[in-house]
Every structure is written in C-alpha cells, then in structure tokens.
Amino acid sequence: MEVALSIDDREGFDGVTIRAIAGEIGATPMALYTYFSDKSALCDGMRDRLFVQISDGIVSRRSWQSMLEGIARGAYRILRDHPNWTPLLAHDGGLPSSGFGFINDLWESMLKEGFAVEDAMRAHGCVMSFAVGSVLFERTMMGAGDVLAKRIALLKRPVESTPGQYASLASVAAKVDRWRWDDIFEPGIRSRLTGVEANCARSRRQSGRPRASRAQA
Amino acid sequence: MEVALSIDDREGFDGVTIRAIAGEIGATPMALYTYFSDKSALCDGMRDRLFVQISDGIVSRRSWQSMLEGIARGAYRILRDHPNWTPLLAHDGGLPSSGFGFINDLWESMLKEGFAVEDAMRAHGCVMSFAVGSVLFERTMMGAGDVLAKRIALLKRPVESTPGQYASLASVAAKVDRWRWDDIFEPGIRSRLTGVEANCARSRRQSGRPRASRAQA
DNA sequence: ACCTGAACACCGTTCAAGT
DNA sequence: ACCTGAACACCGTTCAAGT
C-alpha cells in the first residue's frame, strides 16, 4: 500500500500498475493477488491509507470543533502535499472503513452538543467540501504543474496570445506568482468553522436542548 | 468529444478508450489521432466540453453574483447528473480555454464592483470549492453507487457487522435514505453567496472605493 | 490532410503448476 | 496459503503504406 502511494506520488496515478508495485517490492505481479482481489480493491486500500494519513495529523479530539478542523486541515494539507493522490477521491467506494471510528466519534460529539442529524451532516459537509474543493479549485484554476512557473504560464498563455482580450484574467495572472494559497485557504476554513459553530448555537436555542457537556465547548 | 463523454457516462471513466470511441463513430482507432495528439489531449477536450456544458446552464450574466451562482450551481448539477465525469476534475491541465471568456467576465465584474484581486479569488474559490467539494463529499461519504440503496448499504454494513460499535454512524445511516442532498447543498451555496457579498461590501467600505455601477447590484 | 492495418510495448487478469 | 511463469485479451501508440 505504501509502495503504491509512493509510486503514485512520483509517477502519477497512471504509473500505479500492479507490475510496477511488484517490481518495487521484488515479487511477481501475480504474487500481489494473494493480498488484493483486483485493482479496484487495491485502490480501496490506497484510499484507506490516505484517510489514515489525514486523520493521523489531527492534533486534538477533545471537541467536535477540533475534530472537524483537524480532518479538514489534514485533507487539505495531505492533498496539497501529494497532488497525485487526488484521483483517489474521485473513485467509488464510499468512506473507507478506516474512517468509521473517527467519523463516528465526530458525529457523536456533534449530536451530543445539540446538532440535529441533518445539521450535523450539513456542518460536516460544509467544512469538508471546502477543504477538498479548495484543492480541486487550485488545480482546476492553476493547473497541476509541479512548479509554480508552469501554473503561471498556463494562465498567462492565452492572455499573451490574444493581447487585451482577457484583461481581467491578465491582471489576476500577473499577481498569481506572489500568492500563497494558504492565505486563501486559511481565512476560508476559519470562516466555515465559525459559521458552523454559530449554526450549532442557534439550533440548540431553537430546540431548547441544552449542551450535554460544558467542558467540551 | 460528445461520444467520449457519453461513453464515460455509461461505462465509467475507464471505459473511455480510443478503441471504444473509434468503434462507436465507425472508424479505425488511428483515425482519431488526426484530431487529438494523444489521450491526454483527448481528456483536455473532454474537460473543455464539461466546462462548456456547465456554463451553458447559466441563466444570467448581468452581475457577478448571478455569474458566480450560475457557475457554482452548474458545476454541482452537471457533476451530480454525470458522476462518472468527476475524474476529469482531478486531471491536470488547468482551466480549459473554453472557460477563459467566462472567468474573465466574472473577474472583470467583481473587480469593477470593488473587490481587491485577492479577495476576488477568495470569493471565487469559496463558492466554487463548496460546489465541486460537495459532489466529492457526497461520493466519499455515501459511495458512488447509482442507486441510493447501495449508498445506504455501504454506510450500514459496518454498523450491522459490529452492532453498537458505531452508534452515531448508525443513527445517521438510518436517516440517509430519506435525505435529499439538494436540501444540504441549497442552504450551503446560499450561505456562501451571501457571505461573499458581505465581504465585498466590507472591502468596498474599507478601501473607500465606490461601486462602479449601482445598476449591477 | 486524412485514413488504414499490422505491429510493439504495455496493462490487468486467468490458468495450470509448483511449494 | 503463497508464489511462479506462460498465456490471453485488452490498451495506447508507432510505423509504413495508402488516398
């Protein structure tokens, strides 16, 4: 699994072949079929490892706020550090089983704090969508080149080929090489988290349900 | 291109082979190489068509608000209707050239209305990340099965196999079959859009720059 | 410029055979 | 249970050849 992810990192998702993995661990391609039924199962395993790496970075699990923040930041950071892993997100399979424990704890904590079930999903979705969507947005907007220079070139190329046609695009492209994407992500994730917290408080007031535990907030 | 997207729809992304496309349009595989240099160029073309389909559904381009709302809703709706197209998002290549005109118009309108360049990117990213991230979140959470039943099964399976272990997961899973994801997405996108508008107003006050045109607001 | 058909180097996977 | 090696049906792509 680790070998597969490391190949993905270096060669891209298309480079992850059963033959390549086998070669790297010094075995025959068919030897791997003892451990995975087929390639789709191998991708499931990679998704599993991805989720583990994301949740491993979470610093605190004492409140739903810190868990939600941790899982969102982790997803963003890991996918930014390993852009070639993003195709794993688009694959089928649902939440990997390695994530059941964490998600269960997160939801338990949210429900305990007064979230309605649908509001918990809404909050969870709001924050996580922003995190993984940010990675996709940066890639879609700026391209997925390894070096920033390539991204700038991608955005500037059409502008230069037809001067004046895309004036606003050009004015943004001119600034892009001085951007730190974290400065875009950071206020965004903060804003989502405070918004979610405000919704929780309001939902608690409406339902008249008190907090289960003051200590966690 | 349309044939490629239709195969993607029916057979999944892995089914999109040069041989399959050629067979469907009644030609030899090698005949396609007159129109695409290689498979990566073919994927670029598919991304291009995807963007065109998304922006075709935009109802009004009179204000940056309606453009931003339109592109976000379009991305969400198209990807929900064609889940097998999501892998195209994870591919490299940057913004397809068919999107230059629209994005240029959007940014021009935002800059005119008083957004700083970085704030325009922030707002654009906030709304679009939520839209495409929502699709991914629903797939990651619920799996990508065609039928809702399969999604429920995916979430319920671990719960049933180890009863009581994931109580909160189970309580959410029990409600999932009555959910309409649009009811999660709808308030989310509304909230993002009003938030962005508030930020624009504040940014305009801070810079002391007046609106370029009252009519557009 | 556009299309063909044979060929090449790859891929996931099956199968029969070994330990 | 675990591993091998040959084989099969596929894939993207090259190449020489045709119009």
Please characterize this protein's 3D structure.
The structure is a homodimer of 217-residue chains. By secondary structure, chain A is mainly alpha-helical. The first copy, chain A, has a single domain (2-142, 181-207), classed as Tetracycline Repressor, domain 2, CATH 1.10.357.10. The first copy, chain A, is built from nine helices and no strands. The first copy, chain A, has helices spanning 2-11, 18-24, 39-56, 64-81, 100-112, 117-142, 148-161, 167-176, 181-207. The two termini of chain A are 38 Å apart. Residues 145-149 and 212-217 of chain A have low confidence and may be disordered. The first copy, chain A, binds a DNA duplex (19 and 19 nucleotides) through residues 17-19, 27-31, 33-34, 38-39.
Major β-sheet profile of chain A: none
Helix-strand category of chain A: mainly alpha
Average the pLDDT over all residues of chain A and give the rounded result.
Answer: 85
For the record, the count of structural domains of chain A works out to 1
Under CATH, the homologous superfamily of chain A reads Tetracycline Repressor, domain 2
CATH topology of chain A, by name, is: Tetracycline Repressor, domain 2
Low-confidence stretches of chain A: 145-149, 212-217
Question: N-to-C terminal Cα separation of chain A, in Å?
Answer: 38 Å
Helix-strand topology string of chain A:
HHHHHHHHH
What global shape of chain A is seen? flat
CATH class of chain A: Mainly Alpha
Return the CATH architecture of chain A. Answer: Orthogonal Bundle
User: What percentage of residues of chain A falls in helices of 4 or more residues?
Assistant: 55-70%
How many beta-strand runs of chain A?
0
C-alpha Rg of chain A (nearest Å): 21 Å
The share of residues in extended strands of chain A comes to under 5%
